[in-house]
Amino acid sequence: MDKASVGGLASGIGLLILAIAIAPGSSFAAFIDYPSLAVVVGGAIAASFIAFPIKTMLLSPSVVKKILFPKQQELQPVIKQLVEFAEIARRDGILALESKTKDVEDPFIMMGIQMAVDGTDGELMEAILRAEIQAVSNRHKTGKALMETMGRYAPAFGMIGTLMGLIIMLGNMDDPEAIGPGMAVALITTLYGAVVSNLFFLPFADKLGFYSKRELEVREAIVRGILSIQEGDNPRVLEQKLNTLLPQAARTQDSEAA
């Protein structure tokens, strides 16, 4: 579970509830209006169905799950594993790596090692691996675009709901006592749209973008590492090459640990 995402959501919701609780004259009942919620959330989802194919929309639950329960690889363990493979290849020959593929959990590393063991041409291997990276990047962009689209439509439907409320209110001007509550209800949809967009959908899109960048960095390291192994580079040279992808603080920690 991503503690930052869950903590951010809990904090954001908690602050809103606290603000309502301590504001003079406010009540929770004044901030609950199911028709307004249906207009904002339902409208944003309906508009997204128009913008995306059904298959893409059906991915929404898995996209949200990926935000809350990410399976991110750390770069340092990947570099360590690639250096170990380079040492084996240099000591026992690249064919010795075939026996190590059963220990590899990442299918991307396994594919690269298998191609290296099979003697695949270096340029062809790089082209295949980079095509795989591009496919992953495209999938990530689709998930991010889905969240961004919902985040963009939610405030728009909030405004639509407000206009609907104002029209209904103006149609009942013969009852002055109903104008105040009617105006409050009309404005709730704008509030709902802003909250849904800025506390859920847009932060979700930003977190997906962050995860995507991290994953692509790891895969770039894997491509460089496997090509280096196939070319027979010294493991220490390989390690130095891949460490350039790490932040300076992480490199310092590695050197101190060594």
TrEMBL record:
The chain crosses the membrane at residues 39-58, 153-171, 183-205. Its main location: membrane. Pfam families: MotA_ExbB (PF01618). Keywords: Cell membrane, Flagellar rotation, Membrane, Transmembrane, Transmembrane helix, Transport. One of its GO terms (cellular component) is plasma membrane. GO terms for biological process: bacterial-type flagellum-dependent swarming motility; chemotaxis. Residues 102-220 form the MotA/TolQ/ExbB proton channel domain. Coiled coil: none annotated. It is found in: Cell membrane. It is a multi-pass membrane protein. InterPro entries: Flag_MotA_CS, MotA-like, MotA_ExbB_proton_chnl. Belongs to the MotA family. This is Chemotaxis protein PomA.
